[in-house]
Amino acid sequence: EPRRTEEPAQSTGLFEAANREFESTESGSDTSDISEELSTQGGEGKSPGEAASGLKAGPEDSALPDTQLQREERPTSTCSSSSVVGEVVKTMQHFMEKFGMDLFTVTQAFLKNTGEVETTLYFLQTGQRLDGYPVWTREDDLELQKDDERVRNKLIAKFGAENVAKRVAFRKS
C-alpha cells in the first residue's frame, strides 16, 4: 500500500514534540537547568534578554519568544527528510501505545527488521518476521561488515538475498 506522506506540517511538529519529550525523559532535569543557568550566568544585574544574547538588548531583541519559535521551525521546514522522520516517530509512538512498549523496545524492533514498518508491526505482534526469516542481530550485522563471500553466503542462506541487500543499504543510510 502506498505510504502516506501528506501532512508534513503536522508531522514536523510531532517530531519536535517527540524529540523534546525524548530529550527531557532521557536526561531528567538537565535540559531545563541549562537554560536557567544561561540566563543567570554572569548576568546578575542584567535582564534575562540581555544575559541570553550577551549583548545590550535593543528593542528588537526583546521579542525573544518569536525569534526562538522561528529558529526552531526553520530547520524542519527546509529539511526534506523531516516529514519522513515525522512519519517514523508517529509510527513508533503508535506501536508504543498499541503494544504498551517503551521507546527502546520499539526502536530495537525497527533496527532488527531493517526499519520496515509492516515487518516490524508483524514482529511486535507475533515475535516473528512477516517473511518467515529470522530478525537481524548485532552478530549478524558484524558478520555482514566482513567482506567475506562465505560469510555473506551464510547470511543469504539465513535471511534471503533480498533481505541481505536491504540490510546493507539500511546500514549505510
TrEMBL record:
Region (Disordered): 1-83
GO molecular function, one term: telomeric DNA binding
Protein's cellular compartments: Nucleus; Chromosome, Telomere
Domain annotation TRF2-interacting telomeric protein/Rap1 C-terminal: ranges: 96-171
GO biological process, one term: regulation of DNA-templated transcription
GO CC entries: shelterin complex
Source organism, top-level taxon: Eukaryota
Pfam families in the cross-refs: Rap1_C
Compositionally skewed regions (Polar residues) per UniProt: 25-41
Protein keywords: Activator, Chromosome, Nucleus, Telomere, Transcription, Transcription regulation
Cited function: Acts both as a regulator of telomere function and as a transcription regulator. Involved in the regulation of telomere length and protection as a component of the shelterin complex (telosome). Does not bind DNA directly: recruited to telomeric double-stranded 5'-TTAGGG-3' repeats via its interaction with terf2. Independently of its function in telomeres, also acts as a transcription regulator: recruited to extratelomeric 5'-TTAGGG-3' sites via its association with terf2 or other factors, and regulates gene expression.
Family of the protein in this entry: Belongs to the RAP1 family.
Subunit structure as annotated in this protein's UniProt entry: Homodimer.
Name the record gives this protein: Telomeric repeat-binding factor 2-interacting protein 1
Species assigned in the record: Himantopus himantopus (Black-winged stilt)
